[in-house]
Amino acid sequence: MEARVSAKIASLSAEQLKLVEKGARIIRRGGLVAFPTETVYGLGADALNTDAVAAIYEAKGRPSDNPLILHVSSIAMAEGVVEINARARILMEKFWPGPLSLVLTAKDVVPSRTRGGLSTAAVRMPDAAIALALIEKSGLPIAAPSANVSGRPSPTDAETVRSDIGAKIPLVIDGGDTRFGVESTVIDMTAGSAVLLRPGGLSKEAIEGALGEEVLLPQDQNIIRRSPGTRYRHYAPSLPLVLCCAQDVPKGARRWAWMGISEPQGEPCAQMIFKDKAEYAKELFRALRALEKSGAEIIYAETPDETGIGRALKDRLLRASGK
Question: Which residues form a coiled coil (predicted)?
């Protein structure tokens, strides 16, 4: 793992490293930096600095009881902020760096503000060179929700970050488009069984294969709230969003836009067709922002099946629609 992290950081250009060094100085001073991960762009601050974390909530307009994920660059750094059990370590060694966040018992060093007032904290190691370098150079775990106005579609490119919150923060590091387009999978590892709190870039099936056991779905709302992105409406475009099958768009629907894998019946004023679920997920948030500017009055979106990345994609679509 250490070798993979070092290799990724070594792949950065001199110009990128210069921006990372600037970002690390801002983080150490208690400031905010937007940066790319493999999932979406994050809005980062020192996870152990209460005032810095408070600035994240203020910049996003984020509810104060919505916890933040701590981004680390090594298992040793994770051990400094949470209690790691044997099963969690299996997943870290298998899938880190990658789009997997693990909810574990927080250590006292993690401020209550970072944890959203909970006794647990979510940690992950991002699989993106700029993100890993920023954590390494700052020497701190970085708390980082998506770098957008709370409730809006998450940003998957730097320009979206700038248009949403660029005026509120000192630095946006541009790393191009993100690879997954949906946030990390969040798994609660504090009990006897692993519990899926939020589907994301790593499939439930892959996690079950690594653990050799079923990953349960949550039954208790108090457990669900340990994950960000599960209690409030998220990812919402400015237009109504309705999920349906390609053949079920209502006849005579008002001026409408379409997105999905299949061609719709009828005549949308704008449409975005993707080759498969992976591309649908990767382009979802960008598509929502584009279609809300298309002149349509409503967006119809194809409902994916729940295998692989489809589970995360369907979750984001449901939340964007307000369901």
Answer: none
CA gap 76, 58 in Å, rounded: 30
Region 242-250: what's the mean pLDDT? 91
Are 136 and 122 a contacting pair, CB within 8 Å? Answer: no
Taken in order of first residue, the domains within the chain and their CATH numbers are 2-224 (3.90.870.10), 241-321 (3.40.50.11030)
312 token code pair? 């995360």
Cα–Cα distance, 227 to 100 (Å, whole number): 12
How sure is the predictor about 229, in pLDDT bands with cuts at 50, 70 and 90? low
What is the pLDDT, as a whole number, of residue 233?
63
Give the Cα separation of 37 and 292 in Å (integer).
25
Which residues carry a binding-site annotation for ATP? 62, 66, 120, 144, 146, 154, 198, 235
Say how many Å lie between the first and final Cα of the chain, rounded: 39
Task: Kindly list the distances between the CA atom of residue 79 and the CA atoms of 59, 76, 85, 99, in Å, as whole numbers in the listed order.
Answer: 29, 5, 10, 19
The residue among 95, 93, 123, 117 whose CA lies nearest residue 190 is 123
| pLDDT interval class at 77 (50, 70, 90) | very high
Annotated binding site: 39, 62, 66, 71, 120, 124, 144, 146, 154, 184, 198, 235
β-pairing, 100-105 vs 185-188, is parallel
Q: What's the CA gap between 43 and 33, in Å, rounded? A: 6
Distance CA 300, CA 285 (A): 14
Which amino acids are annotated as binding site for L-threonine, given as ranges? 39, 71, 124, 184
Q: Do 238 and 294 touch, CB atoms closer than 8 A? A: no
Q: Kindly report whether the global pTM for this prediction surpasses the value 0.85.
A: yes
Mean local confidence (pLDDT), 154-177: 97
Using alpha carbons, list the distances in angstroms from residue 171 to 16, 60, 62, 166, 316.
13, 15, 20, 8, 28
